[in-house]
Amino acid sequence: MRTILVPVDFTSTTENAVKLSAEWATQYQYTHIILLKASQEFEFDYLPNEENVNSHIKRTELLFSRLTGIIAEKSPDVTVLKASTQWTLTRSINDLIKDQPSVELIILGSDDQASSANSFVSENIISIARTSPVKALIVPNGYTYTTVKNILIPCDVNTITKLDRLFHHKSIIEQMDVRLMFLNIHKRNGSDDNEDKNKELEAYIRQYLTTIPSTIHNYYDENIIRGILTFASSNKTDLIIALPGKHSFLYYLAGKSISEGIYQNVNQPVLILK
Length: 274
Prior knowledge:
Elements lengths: L2 E6 L3 H16 L4 E7 L11 H25 L4 E7 L3 H11 L3 E8 L9 H4 L1 H7 L3 E6 L9 E6 L8 H4 L2 H7 L2 E8 L8 H14 L5 E7 L3 H11 L4 E4 L6 H5 L16 E3 L2
Parallel strand pairs: 1-2, 1-4, 2-3, 4-5, 6-7, 6-9, 7-8, 9-10
Antiparallel strand pairs: 5-10
């Protein structure tokens, strides 16, 4: 039993994430999808009487029904489970994962520049991704599923041991029939001539990923996020993988401007490893 958890709200952003989860489940042999609806604080502002409470419950049931239908249409063999809670979204996710150890992946819908959905889930992406004990896949609202063939992995040639977490997923990556692009962003022009570090990274990759086609790229940009996204847009990229630790993609997304990170990433999903 392999399970995907998808937090949902009443927006097109999380509906798109549900569509992706159905495709992902079929592609990578997941058997169950859990839809989690956590109540938002403002929803309780208009729920003091029984009529409003019942209306909210009915609206949530209709949401679950529609999303379940989407999954059934795309992946009829996948079992859909539904959960709702009045706790905070981050706590609800972590409690559910404790109760459901079969959850291996969280799929999170993210508002993008073209979206006006104002998704509650999207607003909580960073806290969810940071605290989740399992890997998380961030899906831009404008993204349409395509088979993953080209994976971009931003990394730092000075801290190549951070790749250890990637190698923990080697068996899964080998099944995906993909090409890996390791990208080192230099913030200072002319610093991309460290051949020794590049050779060390190349040897490290060859040692652990012998059967997976891989290339190493160096790119200069004073803005890490901009450099990654510029490279991704000019080189066919189906998925970006964020490594754990200080030098991860997530580290920069959680920095000065989330909008410069996830919200500008309108084309590719980001997989955050644990």
